[in-house]
Amino acid sequence: MSDWREFEQNPVSHSAAHHLTTIQWLLDDQGYARVSDVARHLGITRGSVSVTLKGLRQRGLVVEDDHKHLSLSEEGVQIARGIRTKRVLIQALFREVLGVPDEVAEQDACKVEHLISDQTAEATGGFLVGLEKISSDSQWTHLLESLQRLAAATPASFPGSATQELALRLEKKDPQGEDQPS
Amino acid sequence: MSDWREFEQNPVSHSAAHHLTTIQWLLDDQGYARVSDVARHLGITRGSVSVTLKGLRQRGLVVEDDHKHLSLSEEGVQIARGIRTKRVLIQALFREVLGVPDEVAEQDACKVEHLISDQTAEATGGFLVGLEKISSDSQWTHLLESLQRLAAATPASFPGSATQELALRLEKKDPQGEDQPS
DNA sequence: TCAACATGTTTGGGCTGCCAAACTTGTCGG
DNA sequence: CCGACAAGTTTGGCAGCCCAAACATGTTGA
Questions:
Q1: Could you tell me which of B101, B135, B145, B172 has the C-alpha nearest to residue A130?
Q2: B 51-110: CB within 7 Å of strand C
Q3: Residues of chain B above pLDDT 70, percent
């Protein structure tokens, strides 16, 4: 329990992460990004964006063009890409593996993208790559599909009885949890 | 226009979530919970806890015993259990499926526990239950293990080349150029 | 040329959540 | 009975982020 607030020492806050990824997205999409564009996309006021970006400029993550056009510094690009990659991976994990509807997967991924460790993100990537490689094996895909159905089976409420029961077991054997019902 | 700040309208904030689960943990562990215990456990001052708990009391989530002993209301228990369950499930997902070391899995789970939707949490539960059921079939466990190895293979840095490549593909094939930076 | 409009910035406020420090209580050993 | 200490509360500050509103600028169409 050393650091439950560890996310607070993240390179960028939740808010900053969204500012950066938004700028990058705007650049990709329309070739330029201004304060107003960012504000519109994030659904906040220009004033708020202006202030936040002032900070990000000072931190060297955002650069302002000669004519109020925004772009990202090398470091800014690095951070934005990392976060974006994490979002896509987590979203795919939830969607492809757990069978969660894409919109929900995206929302959840969006909420946690900047919190997931590099290690878990990388593991997600590795897992998905492996999954892709064996996706030609129909036996496996059948299994995965039935697991997905099972996963998405209870649209009712959380926590369902089976889930609750599993969670209790997981909690109990917390010490050295192995997945063996043996 | 899915709101990227959606987490802000959660029933409880990140901070509140930790206060609640801490009280529950303390009750389970030592049979009682006081302001000082919660403060110690969270690594913040008694003053902060005192103020926060005053709010949670007013919201009817926390109850104060006759002698400064804290406990949770019915609703408080509900919320705390839900969050705790989510943490355990996500942690297990990362550990058992992705092959992430338990400490890392716990840290990540801890950071996102209160953000994950009920639907994704339930799907995680369903998936793990299904996985458990077929864990006797060595064919699948072997497959899973090799996937885990693949997942955890690159302890190096994030994002690894394969992961990066996958992420790019995932991003590309996103149906609509992703109209919502969400 | 000039009013109208879009854009960017600044400022004052609010809310959450943390700390430090002063204060209040309650309990216990001498 | 009293001093000391642990526990709880209150208060003033600070930081992050958001809004609203007043301003400053720049572009444009009539």
A1: B145
A2: 51-52, 55, 67
A3: 79
Integer distance in angstroms from CA B47 to C1' D9? 7
For chain A residues 34-93, those near strand C by a CB cutoff of 7 A are 34-37, 46-47, 50-51, 53-54, 64, 68
Ordered domains of chain A (ranges, CATH): 9-79 (1.10.10.10), 86-172 (no CATH)
Cβ contact A143 with chain D strand, < 7 A: no
B161 burial via Cβ count (<10 Å: 0-12, 13-18, 19+) = exposed
Whole-structure pTM value: 0.84
B126-135 per-position pLDDT tens digit: 889 888 887 6
Distance CA B12, CA B73 (A): 14
Q: Are A42 and A102 in contact (CB under 8 A)?
A: no
Question: Has residue B176 got a pLDDT over 60?
Answer: no
- Dump the DSSP string for A43-96: TS-HHHHHHHHHHHHHTTSEEE-TTS-EEE-HHHHHHHHHHHHHHHHHHHIIII
